[in-house]
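Many introductory courses stop at the sequence. We go one step further.
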Amino acid sequence: MTLSWPNHPITLEEWEALPEDSANKLEVAEGMLVMSPRPLSWHQKAGMRLGTLLDDQLPDTLTGLLDVEVLITLVPLTIRAPDVLVTRTALFETNPPRYPAADVLLAVEILSTGTRRVDRVLKFSEYADAGIPQYWIVDLDDPTSLLAYVLVDGNYELSGEYTGSAALDVVGHPVSIDLPALTRR
């Protein structure tokens, strides 16, 4: 069977009608389907651990989630799936199929081969334009590092660069992260 992918800017309805793809990570950028390979083991472990660390350290009113869809813009359709995000627990409890960017308090991307530029440039500007208050970029290359950005007047400003143990703030709540432990067994 030959699968036919859209060759035009897609709508939300067309996005929702696409078949599941377990081999690739799918997103939409300005109506165009974006396909990248699923992340490797270290990336997956780091995302899982970071999501759990955030969830455990944040108040019950906030929750950390992994790889969920975020609606950046409806027209043209842009849907991203940050590796980790923080949103309000009240919204999470409604079990939405995706989260409006306005409800994302922190987006985290873990750099991978093939997505480094997208995470550092394209998603950086998309998340800022969408008003996401905080954006973190995690680089698993030795030494594991984290760049933390905060939205100021519509643009991200670097609020910290970390290796080793990091004491950070997520929308007014302190969190501690042992960066090398994100991939350590």
